[in-house]
Amino acid sequence: MDSFEKALYMLPADIRSAAEQYRDSPAEEIRLRVGRVPTILICGEERALGRESTSAQELSRVLERATGASLHTAAAAMAEGYLSYMGLRVGVCGTAVLREGEVSGFRRFSSLALRIARECRGACDGVMREMYRNGFENTLIISRPGGGKTTALREIIRSLSGAGTRLAVVDERNELSATDEAAAQFDLGAHSDVLIGVPKAEGAMMLLRGMNPQVIAMDEITRERDIDAVSQIFGCGVGILASAHAADADELARRPLYRGLLDMKIFKYAVTISGGGDKRRYAAERI
Domains plus CATH for the chain? Predict the structure, then answer.
């Protein structure tokens, strides 16, 4: 079952039927909003899926499927704005519940975004040839949210691993490998070892101690402790492949969290992504 089929499985029957026609398109997301027309996002354009509105009860049923009928156990994940279902990211919006100033869950849901993950084999071959002429150098992949960071990261992991590099992958939310019952939906290469369900900082240290990697890969550096882990990996002489949210390297440098990371001169290259859908373009720049 690929990501598109997983998204279809969670939908109400009539919306599922309307979405079927887009199976072979570069669909990026399916959006469900209470009281609004359900849509599918293709190359930046939302297209209506058949009916005039979606109910709150239908959103709840989608989330029940995504969490195995256990919304309560997924509360911590949803507090970060999304949850993962077999590698499919489901973004959530609604009325949040705060405890001590932090989101602890949701009282009700108003919108869902089912992000459809895809493999794009060969998409990063050009930038890899440019960056790695003399072997791997630490690389940070950057783009706006939904811009294709995870897809690019997955592709570079697969290519490096296929060429014989020993990679250890921290797959905190099971989005890079989309593993189900020990079978990975996405190919991360013959020489990759994948740790699933562990926070990035802790997972990186586990892999560093136990798996003797040449390169450690992780998606979405978002916290100070992630940056501390990157610093420790660098200090041990292990390569680092990671991603972060920003439009480009200049915007990254303007954000306090990442400014310190860049000042450490750990990463040699940034891969930036522009365009959308099947027309994404990848560029490498020295940082």
Answer: 3-115 (3.30.450), 125-286 (3.40.50.300)
Give the amino acid at 266. I
If DSSP codes are grouped into helix, strand and coil, which group holds residue 278? Answer: helix
152: nearest Cα among 249, 7, 272: 272
What pLDDT is recorded for position 182?
63
Q: Among 118, 105, 89, 103, which Cα is nearest to 31's? A: 89
- Which phi and psi angles does 201 have, rounded to 5°? -60, -50
User: DSSP assignment, residue 98?
Assistant: E
Contact by Cβ (8 Å): 284, 127: yes
Q: For residues 110 and 33, give the distance between their C-alpha atoms in angstroms, rounded to a whole number.
A: 6
Distance CA 238, CA 91 (A): 33
> Which run of H or E residues covers position 17?
helix 13-19
Distance CA 272, CA 39 (A): 28
How do the residues of the chain divide into helix, strand and coil, expressed in percent and rounded to 5?
A: 35, 30, 35
DSSP string spanning 148-216? SHHHHHHHHHHHHHHTT--EEEEETTS-SS-EETTEESS---TTEEEEESS-HHHHHHHHHHHS--SEE
> What pLDDT digit, counting tens, does each position of 56-65 carry?
999 999 998 8
Give the single-character DSSP code of 243: E
- Which residue type is seen at 99? R
For residue range 222-262, list pLDDT tens digits in order: 889 999 999 999 999 999 999 999 988 899 899 888 888 89
Calpha distance 31→284 (Å, rounded): 32
Contacts of 122 (CB under 8 A, 6+ apart): 155
Residues of the chain with confidence (pLDDT) below 70: 1, 69, 71-73, 181-182, 277-278
